[in-house]
Amino acid sequence: MAIAPQLTTTAPPAQEWKDLLDEILPPQGQWSPDEYLILTEHSNRLVEYTDGFLEALPMPTDKHQSVLKFLLFAFSAFVEARGGKVQFAPLRLQIRTGKFREPDLLLLRSAADPRRQNRFWLGADLALEVVSEEKPERDLVEKRGDYAEGRVPEYWIVNPQSETITVLSLRGDSYSETGTYRRGETALSVLLPGFSVAVAAVFDAG
């Protein structure tokens, strides 16, 4: 009696997959903006892009998301009641041609602002980052320069490690600190007169 051939269901070794992807995908430094956009539209990873180079961001923690959710609700209630629009990651923000970032939160004071595009935003009035434990300098230093380059008028740095909220306002080509707020204090926006959040409530969110 003839014996039917057995189908192999074993996955290729990890190195074979890596070699295959190395052949298919552009090397670092050679990604085009369109290739980056297509990649991020078919992935659940947060990836940022600068002049051909990709940087994958860490998966958010529960604490990160709890803080972000509190701030999203607070900003949304204030801004959208006044005709603005608030969004949160993943949504790409174009800093300039050849440079994209994924702010944790970004907003426009007018929902009809032409910079609000469906595929990615061409600018924002405010960007906010919750500092990650994995690489705090990304949010504390690097993105401070990035959002200044993108002419974002206000940048909030929300740091769960130090339990501080730093509000930065664009002055010329760089940011100046309008305030660093701690427990027992209230963080205030310069861009949005009347908007404030209690620091303790932000970091006690959960």
Outline the structure in words.
- The longest helix has 18 residues.
- The strands form three sheets. The chain has a six-stranded mixed β-sheet with strand order 3-6-7-8-9-10, with helices on both faces. It has a four-stranded antiparallel β-sheet with strand order 2-1-5-4, sandwiched between helices. It has a two-stranded antiparallel ribbon with strand order 11-12.
- The model has no long low-confidence stretch (mean pLDDT 91).
- It is globular.
- The chain is α+β, with helices and mostly antiparallel strands and 206 residues long.
- A hairpin with a 7-residue loop joins strand 11 and strand 12.
- It has five helices and twelve strands.
- The termini are far apart.
Characteristics of this structure?
206 residues; alpha+beta; 6-stranded mixed β-sheet; 4-stranded antiparallel β-sheet; 5 helices; 27% strand
